[in-house]
Amino acid sequence: MTIVETTYGKVQGADDKGVAVFRGIPFAAPPLGDLRWRAPQPPDAWDGVRDATVFGPTAPQPVQMTGVAMGDAHAHSEDCLSLNVWTPGAGDSEKRPVMVWIHGGAFQSGSGSMGLYNGANLAKRGDVVVVTINYRLGLLGWLASEHLGGGNWGLLDQIAALQWVRDNIAAFGGDPDNVTAFGESAGSVSVATLLGTPAAKGLFHKVIAESGGPGGFPIRFAEKFVNALVEECGVDDVRDLRDTPLEELVEAQEKIVERLGRLATPLAPVVDGTTLPVQALDAIRDGLNHGVPILVGTNRDEMTYFAMGDRKLTAGDDAVTRRRLAATVGEEGLDDLIETYAKARADQGLPTDPFSLWVAIESDRMFRIPSLRMAEAHAATGSPVYEYLFDWESPAAGGFLRSCHALEIPFVFGNLDQPMMNMFAGEGAEAEALSAAMMDAWIAFARTGNPSSEALGDWPAYDGERRATMRLGKTVEVVDAPMEQERRAWEGRVTGRMSSA
What we know:
By secondary structure, the protein is an alpha/beta fold. The protein folds into two domains: 3-291, Alpha/Beta hydrolase fold, catalytic domain (Rossmann fold, 3-Layer(aba) Sandwich); 298-488, Rossmann fold. It is built from 17 helices and 16 strands.
């Protein structure tokens, strides 16, 4: 058993596939009682050796999103601010690149302990240190109100975890001066937002954003949710909710989300004037983290993941598709947008049925265009930017998912052997080769700031003219300005989760 000394006490880990793993290390005090909806505080130190062989509790989240009951304290707890470390060299004097993963889940679900994010294979293959973290979710992490002093509690948790890495990772064989923050979906929005957050500056040196651009909607958008929560819980003021039982809060959150719609619910980063003074994209454009290399990309068919079970939408009815798009994109210029996508996809030999057009337009609105706008803004400051487009297709559901949201994750972590992954991500020599190539590219980027590798060859930097993009799928190649007609159709249009607010 390996023992490492942190600034708060000693921890004892275990072996995982030939590397040391330390699970459930607290990086902040439990955000309970008066610390609910406040910035995280340092954890208490401990005597002796702390057992770090078991994952800590996940952040509280709805049972229907996880299948785990709220009453199971070992699964869910407000005492959730812990992290996990996989390292090939705990206690040695090497300075390995450090990769800190921030999980997705719409800011309402997930954890750093999910099997999909097991860091052993990535750490072993690249001789890197992999860290996964928990942060506060749902209304506990993202409730925003001027009466609470702002919002972004989950973002502050992520910053606290990065501060812990800065102060402690050397003891685990990592280099605190070579930290890559990477994440997917809400985790991608998080790392992209951290790129535009002053308090996070200097805590990471590279960023990998998988399917999500920077966040930061006006705090006024959160007031509708806050007012509904106060009414649902029967209190006079949002500050009174610090005394409300956890189960009551989570139940109230789900009732409100059901009324407002999950993707339209403002539980995400906000411009609160303190943690996030301005829109993160504006801060990036102004060069807050000038010189920090970023690797950015999306999956071609992100939105199929969210359409599973929606029979009205997937039936391929023109009227339903247009009505859904009008609700998110708006009526102005919608027919031209649909026509542009239909023509562009026909030229590429891609399906043009109503459902496929909805997938393509919404995938771009929610994910690709915000990511490209971040890439363009950062590249314009003279910073290194690398772009990818993932188009490997899932065999699941008879091919319905195509190149869906989250599909790249098992390839990045080298976890195609995880349970059920063969059904979701595929299997065989081609899948394994793509995973190896992506792992090596991500590792190379974490080590040097450039994802070029033996398998992929030279990966040219992205700029606003050539728009060089690495295509990752059955074919691996550099393409210039893929899906350019579709990208241009968004010039001057608003995108993102709150676009209809």
